């Protein structure tokens, strides 16, 4: 691919990846997907994302020192999400901007994200939001759209910090207490209600009244993003009520600052193309 102009002034360098094609359906993206690279060294991750044999990419990479690289123009469809689902759609690459955040991930000790890196992620996302209409609830984790396969960017990622900067949706998690739970192999109306609520927020899960493995994996993804203090795939009152609060915030328009401040008060296959680095 010939060199291209960066989409944003916050981009420090272009590293051209050949791994993209044309978006289908939507004229413009309406999602941002956040990943971690999941590789031990940042330069190796960038190399892989630009390797034509790997057939994976993202639009942006945020290095641990806060510098921002662009690999694919936003108008194109980068191959970052893989087999995934959100809001009933399974071609997530066509409707999203993908951001890889350099972090070794769970396989290599999963260090904290440096403050300067998170500041750069926020700056980049805010820049993207000036060009595309993206609702707060559509700024999500790779694990949200691919819960059976992925866990990035993981439970250490500071979603609340992003929401305080008007990037994404967040409510304060309801406190964890002893309570009745729903868990693997449970059945009945309460499971159906849970599944419907998860689908209403955007998650891809079948509403069948059975707390099956797919439901458990979606609950784990939800907890990893919105209730990271305890990630066990079991729906306790804390999990259920945090989800309820998110649905209220979504319905109210999802103003992140308002939501954070007031939270305590109130499928078909996506594509034949591969979609993400080995551990992204």
CATH class of the largest domain: Alpha Beta
Q: Please give the domain count.
A: 2
What can be said about the biggest beta sheet?
A: 6 strands, mixed
The CATH homologous superfamily name of the largest domain equals: Peptidoglycan recognition protein-like
Q: How big is the Rg?
A: 18 Å
Could you tell me the mean pLDDT? Answer: 92
Task: Work out the strand percent.
Answer: 5-15%
Tell me the span between the first and last alpha carbons: 23 Å
Q: By helix and strand content, what is the structural category?
A: alpha/beta
What is the CATH third-level topology name of the largest domain? Answer: Lysozyme-like
User: Any low-confidence stretches, pLDDT <50, length ≥5?
Assistant: 255-259, 261-280
What does this structure look like?
The structure is a single chain. By secondary structure, this protein is an alpha/beta fold. It has 2 domains: 152 residues, Peptidoglycan recognition protein-like (Lysozyme-like, 3-Layer(aba) Sandwich), CATH 3.40.80.10; 65 residues, PGBD-like superfamily/PGBD (Muramoyl-pentapeptide Carboxypeptidase, domain 1), CATH 1.10.101.10. The chain is 29% helix and 10% strand. A hairpin with a 5-residue loop joins strand 4 and strand 5.
Summary, kept brief:
By secondary structure, this protein is an alpha/beta fold. It has helices at residues 42-49, 115-129, 142-145, 159-164, 189-201, 213-226, 237-251, 256-262; strands at residues 13-14, 20-22, 31-36, 60-62, 68-70, 76-78, 96-101, 139-141.
């Amino acid at each position: 691919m010939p060199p291209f102009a960066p989409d944003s002034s916050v981009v420090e360098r272009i590293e051209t990846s050949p791994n993209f094609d044309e978006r289908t359906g939507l004229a413009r993206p309406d999602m941002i997907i956040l990943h971690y690279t999941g590789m031990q060294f940042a330069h190796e991750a960038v190399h892989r994302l630009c390797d034509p044999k790997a057939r994976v990419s993202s639009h942006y990479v945020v290095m641990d020192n806060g510098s921002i690289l662009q690999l694919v123009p936003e108008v194109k469809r980068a191959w970052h999400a893989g087999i995934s689902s959100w809001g009933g759609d399974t071609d997530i690459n066509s409707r999203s901007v993908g951001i890889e955040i350099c972090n070794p991930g769970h396989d290599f000790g999963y260090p904290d994200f440096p403050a300067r890196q998170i500041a750069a992620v926020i700056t980049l996302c805010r820049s993207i939001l000036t060009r595309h209409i993206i609702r707060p609830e559509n700024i999500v984790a790779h694990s949200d759209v691919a819960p059976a396969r992925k866990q990035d960017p993981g439970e250490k990622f500071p979603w609340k910090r992003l929401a305080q900067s008007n990037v994404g949706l967040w409510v304060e998690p309801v406190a964890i207490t002893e309570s009745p739970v729903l868990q693997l192999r449970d059945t009945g109306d309460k499971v159906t209600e849970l599944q419907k609520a998860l689908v209403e927020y955007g998650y891809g899960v079948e509403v069948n009244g059975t707390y099956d493995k797919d439901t458990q994996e979606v609950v784990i993804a939800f907890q990893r993003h919105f209730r990271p203090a305890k990630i066990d795939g079991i729906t306790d009152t804390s999990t259920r009520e945090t989800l309820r609060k998110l649905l209220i915030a979504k319905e109210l328009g999802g103003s992140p600052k308002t939501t954070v401040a007031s939270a305590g008060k109130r499928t078909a296959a996506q594509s034949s193309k591969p979609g993400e680095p080995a551990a992204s």
